[in-house]
Amino acid sequence: MTDQQHAQQQQHENGHKHGHQHGHDATHMDWDVMGPLLELGAEVESPVVDQAAVWLRERREAAGRPEVRRLLDVGSGPGVGACQFAQAFPDAEVVAVDGTRALLERARARAEGLGLAGRVRTCLADIPDGLGTVGDADLIWSGMALHHIGDQRSAVDRLGRLLRPGGLLAVAEGGLPTRSLPRDIGFGRPGLQARLEVLNDNWFNEMRAALPDSKETVEDWPAFLTAAGLTDVRSRTFLIDLPAPLGADARAYLHATLTRRSESLGELLDAEDRAALARLLDPEDPQGLMLRPDVFLLSARTVHTGVKPA
After folding, report:
1. Fewest beta carbons within 10 Å, which of 206, 209, 221, 284?
2. pLDDT tens, residue by residue, 188-241
3. Cα 187 to Cα 181: distance, rounded to the nearest angstrom
4. Strand-pair partners of 176
5. pTM score of the predicted model
6. Is-contact 157 227, C-beta < 8 A?
7. d(CA 20, CA 30)
8. How far is residue 204's CA from residue 148's CA, in Å, rounded to a whole number?
9. Which domains does the chain have, with CATH numbers?
10. b vs e for 198-221, b when ≥16 Cβ sit within 10 Å of the residue's Cβ?
């Protein structure tokens, strides 16, 4: 993704931002702060990639094409997923493709730290306009990136063109919103997370409408794959289920994202919800996010796949 698309992605996760702020946020993004947060989020959600990799390997084997020699992670961010795929497909060259140089630097450092530097490389390319420079692949993965492209159907078509004959395209889009707290948290009005999600959905609609070349279309990802000429189109949803009491890393990630959401929502919340958020974010409050024993993380990601005819 580009810097602006990563900024939009983080805003999507954290809450509403008014449209006039998008360019400013993207241009002045502090990647020393945002990079670790994106990396931590990808680590927390890594079970999706692990589960999806098993399914993708099974799909390749069932088609009689078990080998994966070259794999593209398009919209890779800091490279957490790219390194997971390198471990899942040990014979593959994995290319982390992204439009943000600072995140690709993190991807290279991560690969080196895991002893994968010889098989994981990076490619700086805006998505989708720069995809012509990345080369072809047996397997292409794009995780929660394409909804930041104005013409999603065209983006899927471009990815499909990069597949080798018999290659597999996997697009992770949609699923279920993250839940981490009981409906009634013991103070404030019950249903706080549901109200935050409504505001986030409103922001998402505004973000989509403001994208360059934005196209209004039914978000039917299997239909996009079929229109791109791919066959044997299938979808599967993978669960992220981290029960209470939540571990330190996942708890820290939820606290960081809720902090940014609280800052971005501002006046859109009423006084009671702002007070409840402030208490949740107080690191010393026993009923806050960092200390209460009932914090969990439950979410789901749907992966849509299609095969390029041989």
Report:
1. 284
2. 999 999 999 999 899 899 999 999 999 989 999 999 999 999 999 999 999 999
3. 12
4. 300
5. 0.90
6. yes
7. 18
8. 10
9. 3-307 (3.40.50.150)
10. ebbeebeeebbeebeeeeeeeeeb
